[in-house]
Amino acid sequence: MPPPAGAATRRAFLRGVLAAAAAAALPRRGRALPAASTLEIGHVQHGGDWNPRPTALRRLSWELGRRTSIEPAAAAVPVRLGQPGLHRYPMLYLAGAGPLPPFSEAERAALRRFLQYGGFLLVDAADGSDGTGFDAGVRRELGQVLPAAPLAPVPREHVLYKSFYLLDRQGGRLLVKPWLEAQTLDGRAAVLYSQNDLGGAWARSELGEWEYPCTPGGEAQRETAFRVGVNVAMYALCTDYKDDAVHLPFIMRRRT
Amino acid sequence: MTPESAYYDAWRLTALTPLPRWALALLALAALAAVLLAWRGLRAEPRPGRRAALLALRTGTAILAVLLLVEPALELLRTARVRNRFAVLIDTSRSMRFPVEAGGSTREAAAASLLADHRRELSALADRVDVELYGFAGDVAPISPEAAEHGLPATGGKTDVLGALEALAAGAGGAAGSGRRLAGALVLSDGADNAALAQGVSPAAQARLRALGFPVNAVAIGRDAPRDLAVERVAADDFAFVRNKVTVEATLRARGFEGQEVQVVLRREGSVVASTSLKLERGRDTYLVPLTFSPDETGTFVFTVSTPVLPGEAFAENNSRSFVLRVIRDRVRVLLVAGRPSWDVRFLRGLLKQDPNVDLVSFFILRTNGDNPGPQDQLSLIPFPVAEIFGEQLHTFDAVFFVNFAYGPYRGLEIDRFLPNIRDYVRSGGALAMVGGEQSFGDGGYGDTPLAEVLPVQAVDGQPEAEVESRARLTTEGRQNPITALRPGEGASDALWAALPPVTAVNLTRPLGPGQGASVLLEAPAVQAEGRPAPLVAIRQVAQGRTLAVTTDASWRWGFLAAESGEGDRAYARFWNSALRWLVKDPALAPLQVEPDSPTVEPGVAVGLTVTAHGPDFGPATGRKVQAELVAEDGRSVAHGEAVVGQDGTARLELTPPGPGAYKVVSRAEGAADEATAAVAVRGSGPEDADAAPRPALLRAVAEATGGAFAAIPGGGMPRLTVNDPEVVEVGRRRAVPIWDRWWTLAGLACLLAAEWVLRRRWGYW
Questions:
Q1: Lowest CB count within 10 Å: A12, B190, B289, B653, which one?
Q2: Residue of B nearest to A230 (CA)
Q3: CA–CA separation, B696 and B714 (whole Å)
Q4: Cβ of B388 under 8 Å from any chain A Cβ?
Q5: Could you give the residue ranges of the DSSP H alpha helices within B197-337?
Q6: Is B9 an 8 Å CB contact of chain A?
Q7: Better-scored residue on pLDDT, B203 or B536
Q8: In this predicted structure, which of A175-184, A213-222, B400-409, B730-739 has the lowest mean pLDDT?
Q9: Minimal Cα–Cα distance from B505 to chain A, Å?
């Protein structure tokens, strides 16, 4: 179990100072981009352990900036489902470890409206649970938010697996399920759910160490987790772009 | 015969008895019974003579008794014969202008000389019937004998033999003798019927001919079909889709030719769009010629199918046929190029993608030269086909969207080479929308490129986006333009825009000066560029094309962020949908429109035009002068008119084309650069000109079906005309002379009864 987020220790302070120095040294683009062009992820705060991997999104953002033309914001923004401003961040990240307390009806309605108008939600179970813990709570809440769109495995041929990288496996700190699940609205995956603790694979300390080992696949599994993260972000921003007919011949050639 | 009886010229037997019929029947039965009783009583009589005598006496008595009760009389009548009509129908359709035979006189002249030569026979008919002369084509009109003998102008566009006969039988044609029956008719025609008998005398047509009730005599004029090549018919839909294949099917009729190779050409207002060659064969009259093409622009156009005029052709005017085709879009084809994935392009693409009328082709730059995603073969990325989309295929798009897209940073792609092409595409009728971002407008370095010549704002190179929250504010033009006037009513759109979430970044641009066709519709009051609010949405008409500038990459906030409240994302969707419709020149948004009442008119008939004019505020341009002209295929203006727009925003004009052919309708409004166009075709040739072959067999069949006589010229003359006998009708008074009321009838009855009584007594029957 990782230490609670935000614990004020001398070690944490030292890590923060080093991280700031490292961030300044990273090869970034020449000038800061206006917020309108950046990918700023809303990190959903809920009544449970909502931030089990505090460094995960920052590292994913860094990888997005390194690998793609997406311009990510440096850090995710904590948001609450029931409070105004949710729609400022069309991509939300909902993570947790352990039980997920029920959402209020207002929170469910806000999330429902968010998704129906085009918002995207990535759900990441950090506790490796399957039928219990966070998994049980998430399934309960998602079922009530979009009762007409139950979670279903994302098929192998879904555009998500080719939105940037050509993927044929899953990544994460664990491999609880070798697939992602999705709730689909109007042909668009509005909610993606991973039980494999993607954040655990992305998490990297300020000192540059991976915070958790990936099992059973090791570093290859971690790289796949980043690729899944890149593809998920690409899918959130481009949806089914890679299903356009113009891409198919190229993709088919590389698949074979 | 007394003078009085000489007055009557007919008689008939009648009965004067007041007894009803049933009483007479009973009496007749009684008389029959009396005869039968007598016959029965005489069966045992061995002498046939006696038996016959007694039976004869009883029968005579019975007959005489019945006769007395019936009271027969002789009815004297005064009668007369009706003088019926005889109609001579002379074909005045245009096919009568063709020669009777090669090198001979015209069919109309032959008909006239036949009437002149046989005036005596027709005069002889006048003893029995009234001879009436009619000209017929599509309808029937009485003519004078003098006009008939001098030849009638063959101008009718149709030949309807059966229709003319039925109309006359019904009393049409303004006949003086209307109400009297026809005793017969004589048809002088080439038989080139193109109405009810076009396919010959069918059983139904035969029944209709018999129902006429009079014999139709016929003289078929004309022997040989003239040497002629005609475009008889063109089968085409009313509309076609732009860039989709269209096939029109031309029916050619060729007579008298063999082995010639002819080129069948389809032109759109003078420009050849399809052609094919055809070899004429002996013994074959009809050819179906498909002509396929892909219209490359929308609008209403006149198309003409034509063939060359071959040597010796009887009629050159039927070698072409025009029709009007409205070319519409099936789907708006949009190219969207995004410099990077962002929420702005994500929501815009989603909106375009869900529109079934939009065929969207997108390209996103997913990685830059500085990115390091790993081995290329593990990526789904494709090369950016710059030359293909900005070169060869550019003209196939109705609109191009640059969303936060810079032309410069891509090594090796040399997109700048294609910027002149994109500028020319716009000027020649394309549409370009530039959407903001840190790679757009001046930030993208467009200020000194060929695209700056067509953009609706002046991009300021070197000035980064202003990162300021700013709400959108309508300008005066924006309140009147359908792109940004999202709600009807004074101030409603202002309030709507003011309530939408602010944008968070604005590219700094300058509005263009007056006279360049540009308008700023929305501005960002919180962002100042050179001391005035920066343009946020601007449009421009550039030559034939249109451009749109949206100087922010945060327009998605007008949709998704606004949707967090109860308003939903309707404003965002409406703004972009209207912008796209404006860019691709949706006719419904054109400020000036002209529409002919009918796409095709007959020669000499005026073309009715409705011109609809909107002002800059898209309200009716009431009081504004509009003009319209007809432009012939060679570019000459052949008719011109002016009108003033009424309260409803429309003006009516009528222009008369000088003759058959295809005409472009061009309309302009006073003080406006826009012009509206339409097309109209004036029919050059109808079925009369297309197929003028004489059909003597048809007229023979008509004559035979009605019991009339038939002849054909050349070679024949006037046949021996068949005319129904006149009807006899009672016209004067009548008188009944009783027959029974004579002394000898009673005496005869008494004698017969007495003789039977005496003989019976003598021969021992009583």
A1: A12
A2: B373
A3: 11
A4: no
A5: 203-211
A6: no
A7: B536
A8: B730-739
A9: 7
Pair (B31, B68) in one structural domain:
yes
Name the minimum distance, in Å, from the CA of A140 to any CA of chain B: 24
List the 611-640 stretch of B: residues with Cβ below 8 A of A.
Answer: none
Per-residue pLDDT at B297 exceeds 70: yes
The string of pLDDT tens digits covering residues B446-490 is 988 999 999 999 988 777 889 889 999 999 989 888 899 888 777
The distance of B380 to chain A (nearest Cα, Å) reads: 5
The predicted-structure confidence for B530-562, as pLDDT tens digits, reads as follows 889 999 999 999 998 999 999 999 999 999 999
Residue B152: what are its φ and ψ, rounded to 5°? Answer: -100, 145
- Residue ending a domain, choose from B583, B610, B641: B583
Question: How many CA atoms are closer than 13 Å to the CA of B744, on its beta-carbon side?
Answer: 1
Q: Which of residues 242-301 of B touch A (CB under 8 A)?
A: none
Q: What is the ipTM of this complex?
A: 0.87
Tokens of B711: 């002849």
Q: Do A234 and B366 touch (CB under 8 A)?
A: yes
Q: What's the first-to-final CA gap in chain B, in angstroms?
A: 50
> Which of A136-150, B585-599, B631-645 shows the lowest mean pLDDT across its residues?
B585-599
CB B368 within 8 A of CB B461: no
pLDDT tens, B310-365?
887 777 778 888 888 888 877 888 999 999 999 999 999 999 998 888 989 999 99
Does the beta-carbon distance from B349 to A247 stay under 8 Å? Answer: no
Q: For chain A, list residues with pLDDT below 50.
A: 1-33, 256
- Average pLDDT score over residue span B12-41: 87
The residue whose two tokens read 């009557």 is B8
Please name the residue of chain A whose CA is at the shortest distance from the CA of residue B572.
A117
Measured between CA atoms, how close is B483 to chain A, in angstroms? 22
Confidence band for B234, pLDDT divided at 50, 70 and 90: confident
Range of weakest confidence among A60-64, B158-162, B549-553, B723-727: B723-727
B518-556 in b/e burial notation, b at 16+ Cβ within 10 A?
A: bbbbbbbebbebeeebbbbbbbbbbeebbbbbbbbbbbb
CATH number for A35-255: choose from 1.10.3720.10, 3.40.50.12140, 3.10.20.580, 3.40.50.10170: 3.40.50.12140
Distance CA B185, CA B214 (A): 7
pLDDT at residue number A1: 36
Distance CA A176, CA B592 (A): 65
Q: Is B710 within 8 Å of B216 (Cβ atoms)?
A: no
Residue B221's beta-bridge partner residues? B713
Please indicate, yes or no, if residue B689 is contained in any of the structural domains.
no
CA dist., res. A48 & res. B340, Å (int)? 36
- Ramachandran class of B447: left when φ > 0, alpha when ψ lies in -120 to 50, beta otherwise: alpha
Shared-domain flag, residues B368 and B400: yes
Domain count, chain B: 5
Whole-angstrom distance, CA of residue A228 vs CA of residue B234: 60
Structure tokens at A59: 């590292």
Task: State the pLDDT at residue B47.
Answer: 85
Query: B564-569: which pairs have CB atoms within 8 A and are 24 or more residues apart?
Result: B564/A84, B564/A85, B564/A86, B564/A87, B564/A113, B564/A114, B567/B499, B568/A117, B569/A117, B569/A118
| Residue pointed to by tokens 């027959």 | B739
Strand order in the sheet with B532-542: B358-364, B332-338, B399-403, B431-435, B545-550, B532-542, B518-529, B473-474
Phi/psi of residue B191, nearest 5 degrees = 75, 10
